[in-house]
Amino acid sequence: MDHREGHGHASGAQQPPGAAGHDDIGRRDSGAPLSRATARHRLSTRLLWALLWALVTLAASAPFWLRLPPPAAAVAEQAQRVEADGRVTLLGLPHLRPTPGGWTHYRLHFAELPPQRPLYLYVPMLSQRAVIEAGGYRLADSETRVLMSGQSSGATMLVPLPSALLAEGRLTVDMHLLTPPILHGFLSPVYLGGATELAPHYRLKVFLLEYLRLMVPAGQLLIAIAVLGVWLYRPREPLFSWLALLLPLSLLNYAGLLGDLIPQLEHWLPYLFMVSMGAGPALAVVTLLIHDLAPPRWLKASVVALPALTLALAAAGVPTQWLVIGVSLPVGLLGLLASLLISSWGALKGHSDARLLLVPLLLAVSAAVHDIMVLAGWMEGPVLLSIYYRPLLMIGIALILMRRLALSLRQLDNVNSYLTRRLAQREAELARLHEEEQRDAVRLVRSEERQRLTVDLHDGLSGYLASIIAMAERDQTTHIERTAREALDDLRVVILSLDVCEGELGMALGGFRERIERQLKRLGIELAWSTSQLPDISGVTPSQALNLLRILQEAITNAVKHGHARRIVVHGMVGPDGRALLSVENDGIPFPPVPPRGGTGLNNMRRRIRQLNGEILIEPLPSGTRLTIILPTQLPASGEAGSRAQGSVI
Q1: Which of these, 357, 344, 363, 356, lies nearest to 57 by C-alpha position?
Q2: CA pair distance 547, 493, nearest whole angstrom
Q3: Residue 575: which CATH number?
Q4: Residue of higher predicted confidence among 436 and 500
Q5: Residue 309 counted as domain residue
Q6: Are residues 155 and 235 both part of a single domain?
Q7: Domain for residue 59, yes or no?
Q8: Is residue 41 over pLDDT 90?
Q9: Residue 296 pLDDT more than 90?
Q10: What DSSP line would sit under 537-552, residue for residue?
Q11: 78-82 and 102-110: which strand pairing?
């Protein structure tokens, strides 16, 4: 990966047309201005990124401005501080102990107890270990928790109260609070109430103070493993090399979360914090590489030199607490500030990656300043925010790497476009050959259509002519005219279907209506025809149109010949499932509930509806019969009839 963003052409090597640098996507090599579509795309992308970072900033800055509503329960907002010599001092809650380290004894009084039972004592926030006693009972000791998850930066407790303590109607609670050596003690107001009022607040605090603390390093560990895998394949890439060093160093800051799982680790925590101090200058090195700047040698050397010097001072007898507070924390903050200045300069210069890194750096610096103020006692609250905000930097760096990957893929797409244009002549030749094959296929389809129509003429018209000849030989002149008319009608149906093309089924139905209406009028039969609501049916060929017209002709012929109908209604509509429905309803003799087995007409309709992948539904009415033709809106192509559905007469 080339980290010299926007300078991919500096070497003077010839590039295929369409290739561009990281910040020049959409701009041609000739320097032509961006097209309107590309400009709109870039503007929408920037607006989308701005909206995304605005949402991230709003969510991440919530600890600075969001205050959750307190539980609807009895609250102790005052407490007595009991000294070792028995002196009692009244103070308000929340209370910040000015001196780090040691035990503090608080006594809280609840003059009136809530009526609900059972009752719980809820402490939203405290620092380090708490032992709670009442009426001679030891109610809770936070040291016995399964996982305290670094209570030195805030913890919560929900303690059930024995019923024996509630008999007097009032309650006195003694709370012994152990403060860590480097953090001022803190105790929030204490609430007394039922599980309904207190449990939701407690669960939220447990998620924020315990589970989320463990999720954050787990996510950063996954990113570290991914970067390490990339570095193994690109070991000569400076950015990946420094990222592979930065992420493990940064993970050492979360070692305190494992103190409850590995007790032996507590002794080594100050030294691990000293080693993690190298993440500050390492972050500055990574930021310079992201901005295409060469890091100075002294900055690279400080990644190892500063932790080594601090460890040497600790070995010489300097208190580790002083070294952590006086050296490690300031060096980490300086690394963040230096990275923020570099990204601010890059953003002013129009560097795209700088904009992606600026927001996480601002949030990380704000969290670091907040934590220093908490450690110095200038701000109430034991929660240290850096543990939550540090992964935002890793996410920002990951986004930068993904962006560069996307730009590289886009360059690859441009090269593919160039190769595609070089093959245009061959593609045109292939297109010409394809068109010739299509014309041959069309000629073949037409030939097959003619063959099918010839067979249909043979099966239909030749039968009528044979009947006429037989009648003439037997001197049955009275039936010759009727049979000849039927032969002529059959021929007209075939001729009408010959001119049907795609989208002209409605015209064929209109021609059929005009012809059949004259015949029915001569017989004194009324015809009501309405197909305006029939949906469009695509894929119509002459043979398919002939099949549909033959089915209609058979339905009307049966209504006149067998049903003795005096009125016929033809209606087209859209079915509930979206298919086309064409119904033929008459007022003649109802169709028998158990029809005679397999007549020629039904067999012909079954064969033809199968070729259309449709269905025919015949329903006897109180006075007459309704025949419904059900067709798909896309008729099957030649040779596909019956492959998706079995046409049937029901």
Answers
A1: 363
A2: 10
A3: 3.30.565.10
A4: 436
A5: yes
A6: no
A7: no
A8: no
A9: yes
A10: -BS--HHHHHHHHHHH
A11: antiparallel
